[in-house]
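Structure record:
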Amino acid sequence: MVVSEGMLKWVMRLYPPLLFQRIWVVKFDKGYKGVEVRIKKSFLNKNYNKSIFGGTIFAAADPFYPLLFHQLFSHKGYKLIAWSKSSAIQYIKPGLTDLHFKISLNNDDIAAAETILNTVGKYTGHYPIDIYNKDGEICVSLMNEVYVRNLNFVDTNVSPTDDH
């Protein structure tokens, strides 16, 4: 579904798995080149040690690179699917305060992905996310592997099979 940055911001803000974990989309950048996200610490996402539950932190980071790629290329007319293929997460410090992060795609990232989508049909890329506390200290570092498939891609290098 192709939607505006403002509409997707509100859809994600009200999406129950994010809303009930106090994950708040601050804004999507123009053209879906980035997103800013906050995680509010509350009794809904606090663990036994009084820090933000690691699952909440992971849930906050998981969907956003695929969403950026999906919206960016859908606005260019592509029919595609995008998801997080894998992630590696390192919890560096407990999330004892609200947390926040900002991710962005640069023009080189976008051009490389588009070239691969048009020549191979599927793109896989690794993108970092650092999540900070209110004092600007990194609490979590994550590497997200994003998979994007161009559903309209036809491989012209494959010869038709002969069924005689």
Summary: The first helix runs from residue 5 to 14. Residues 5-150 form a domain with the Thiol Ester Dehydrase; Chain A fold (CATH 3.10.129.10).
